[in-house]
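Hi, here's the filled form for the chain we discussed.

Project: internal
Contact: R.S.
Residues: 151
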Amino acid sequence: MSLYSQIDNDIKAAMLAKDKVRLQALRGIKKEFIEGKTAPGANGELSDDAAMKILVKMAKQRRESARIYTEQNRPELAATELAECDVIEGYLPKALSEDELRAELVKIIAQTGATTPADMGKVMGVATKALAGRADGRAISALVRELLAVK
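And the returned structure, exactly as it came back:
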């Protein structure tokens, strides 16, 4: 079952359960998926990889909005954003721990043959594709910088 059809089924389940927060998050996901399908060059199709990228972007937006609401002393809005973020993250692969991320990056660095901080771009290109949805770009970047500086 594609991610798109799974979201459709989960919308129906959320409606029956009268789960407003989950329903709102799922409708937002479906809206983004439809926009992705109709985007120029998409040919009316949405691959699971493209859907994952959309979900990662949406989760990141929700976390950022929650942070801003918290800074502006609006905890009720921050709570809603975080609840939606939890729903979205439920469709993403399990995030890597720091140790798992470090191990993956060591493999990628060895695979690309990177030895100096100047090779960071080479490593980041491979790492962001390989670890999409499982690690934050900032965390990957910081760890790659640290690992290449040590060598």
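Let me know if anything looks off before we file it.
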